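Morning F.,

Quick status update on the modeling queue. The single chain you submitted on Monday has been processed. Sequence for confirmation:
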Amino acid sequence: MARFLVLAVIVLALLGAALHPLLFVLNLLPFDSRGLTSVLDIAKSFIADLLAWGLIGLIAAMGTLVAFGRWSRRRSGIAKSSRSPGAGSASEPAQGRMVVAITAYNEADAITGVVKDFSTQEGVVKTIVIDNNSEDATAALARRAGATVIQETRQGYGYACLRGLEEALKVHAADVVVLVEGDGTFAGADLKKFQAYITQADIVVGTRVVPGLVEPGSQMDYFFTWGNIAVSALLRLRFWDSQFLGAARLSDVGCTYRAIRRDAVLRILPALEVGQDHFSPHMMLVALDYGLSLIEIPITFRRRIGTSKGASRSMWKGLRVGLAMMWHIMTYQPRRPVLDRGPRSLAPPVPEDVAAGIASGRS
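Structure tokens below.
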């Protein structure tokens, strides 16, 4: 409900702003437009009053929440809480054991360096390249660099990510699955950041909108930076939290670079079904719906090597993907009841036979 209310406010604000120049133009026309301008002027005043009172109501609601929160804390007593941040998991994953799944489509120029960069990082037990029907030497170069290459014939970024998660589950020596892209934009050295936080969350995702960490000339220009921030706000509204303004602090929904605990992958993989470019927010939607904890961290983002094939290929392609993301966030219907959204999900573990079925590949 909150997301539709925010969209309504945005539409009203844009409409009200558009009425000002429209009225100015109508008054300059050589015919009598007083009847139309009178109606539009009333509409402009109504919208202005509505937004103003809405702002006052928002401030009042925020004050009420602050007062209620302080009163609740004093009444319950903070000292009575024995739960510490990050607590709730029966078994913490070892920080060092990671399997890296690299999605690739015609990345011959970059894949050798990407595989070597990630496979040589401390704690990486295996590197997998998901070749999504590349027509160049991507697969051969990845094998030569030491990666295990898996062919995914279903064309699409989301399908490549899904296959990467499935293949990573077969690496039983790893407790954490890492998703990255094979275009050279992500840095293997940033794995240390993910290792530092993965013991405190089910999923750790990167954000590419932090000043100083984005290389000049990268894909994250004004359009993609602002777009990701806007779509992230919509996702936070979908899983609203009155204290933290969302179940997770998100600013970049399109970043592939993310680390997921093995047990979290087992839980959400059966519900992941988007095979195209809006897979990243889809995965976040499913994870938050399942009550998993999600933390966003700043990462280094470099200029890609080679030609873009995804949303950053052009502004129109990016706009289409962004609209698909927004529509998916607004219309997504949970496939199962929403679970506890505490710091860590306490749902019972997946049975061994189910886990083995998931690990053996999707039917």
